[in-house]
């Protein structure tokens, strides 16, 4: 049963309600290891599903273009104050609809079309909005990219500095979507200062780890910090932009009226709840457990012959190249899904295969940790993954079915926020 219950939806639209119940059951029964996914608390679910969705609130607290903001203003102010407190920043904007619009706001705030922006190349672990060619950020601006080392799988800051000195970007992005190692924020800050660039730390994947003290913070080094509010932070699907006081006005104007109209107030409320949760000792323990679980899982996968990008992980994320296993990432990910293990196929650095049929898989431990799994469970998870990958090669559906049942048996002992089995 969905928690909170959805009786009105069930009565009004049983077809849709049945699909939602099915998805809730799926999230309960599978090892959810997509690195960008998690489980939000029931409190976040409740806040996100309130009458706040009925209200338009263009502008900012105290400066709205619509009347009737007596309760909306305090809600947004609460979210902003909690973001500032949790991340120890001068300024926070909680209105961006998601991570990509948040990054687009950075472009609007600091760049003009044709200006040079520098970011990690997408196949190396960067994000589309850091200047990749198929994104508006790569079409409307002049993108230059840095890679990871072929030998180590890690960012070479000497190469980053060399490119930055040659190309003189106005904005430098650090962070990405498949970066398993600690980001050297001080090193990037030194390079940005040397070339006069605005340093933007995209911490969408690691925001919860930073809030929980399990990853170094970019505060004091990056001029601007962008993040989604889900992933490791365990909030609703939204985003935030944080900055020094110097850039607060430029950021706010870029979000509204530059890119967006009214904020999604129900999402803002969910963000406020998630930030309150992120300030607790329980959340800090969770963040450190996420990293401990990822390290334990990486070690167990290495023991089973998996080839991991950079040789392991420092955070929640693991990137594996399956070439040595004799299978591509896409069929492996599909087989793993049938085995009750949900992750995504992904390019690996210097991949020779196409992005829609790459060599690797990407996985993370945030959702498993939220459910209560610890290091002791990671060898079993690795064993299931190894068996499932082997089964994918042999087209062995019986093994995948067996693993799926064993996964369900394990997860029955670990409740999910938002769902209770009937």
Automatic annotation (TrEMBL):
Domain Serine hydroxymethyltransferase-like: 10-385
Compartment(s): Cytoplasm
Annotated pathway: Amino-acid biosynthesis; glycine biosynthesis; glycine from L-serine: step 1/1; One-carbon metabolism; tetrahydrofolate interconversion
EC numbers on record: 2.1.2.1
Alphabetized InterPro entries for the sequence: PyrdxlP-dep_Trfase, PyrdxlP-dep_Trfase_major, PyrdxlP-dep_Trfase_small, Ser_HO-MeTrfase, Ser_HO-MeTrfase-like, Ser_HO-MeTrfase_PLP_BS, SHMT-like_dom
Cofactor(s) listed in the protein's UniProt record: pyridoxal 5'-phosphate
Recorded catalytic activity of this chain's protein: (6R)-5,10-methylene-5,6,7,8-tetrahydrofolate + glycine + H2O = (6S)-5,6,7,8-tetrahydrofolate + L-serine
Chief subcellular location: cytoplasm
Keywords linked to the UniProt accession: Amino-acid biosynthesis, Cytoplasm, Methyltransferase, One-carbon metabolism, Pyridoxal phosphate, Transferase
Gene3D superfamilies: Aspartate Aminotransferase, domain 1 (3.90.1150.10), Type I PLP-dependent aspartate aminotransferase-like (Major domain) (3.40.640.10)
Annotated residues for binding of (6S)-5,6,7,8-tetrahydrofolate: 122, 126-128
PTM-bearing positions, type N6-(pyridoxal phosphate)lysine: 231
Gene Ontology CC entries for this record: cytosol
An individual GO BP term: methylation
Pfam families in the cross-refs: SHMT (PF00464)
Site feature: Plays an important role in substrate specificity: 230
Keyword presence, Transferase: yes
GO molecular function: glycine hydroxymethyltransferase activity; methyltransferase activity; protein homodimerization activity; pyridoxal phosphate binding
Family: Belongs to the SHMT family.
Quaternary structure annotation from Swiss-Prot or TrEMBL: Homodimer.
PANTHER family associated with the record: SERINE HYDROXYMETHYLTRANSFERASE (PTHR11680)
Function field: Catalyzes the reversible interconversion of serine and glycine with tetrahydrofolate (THF) serving as the one-carbon carrier. This reaction serves as the major source of one-carbon groups required for the biosynthesis of purines, thymidylate, methionine, and other important biomolecules. Also exhibits THF-independent aldolase activity toward beta-hydroxyamino acids, producing glycine and aldehydes, via a retro-aldol mechanism. Thus, is able to catalyze the cleavage of L-allo-threonine.
Protein name as annotated: Serine hydroxymethyltransferase
Natural source organism: Micromonospora pattaloongensis
Lineage: Bacteria, Bacillati, Actinomycetota, Actinomycetes, Micromonosporales
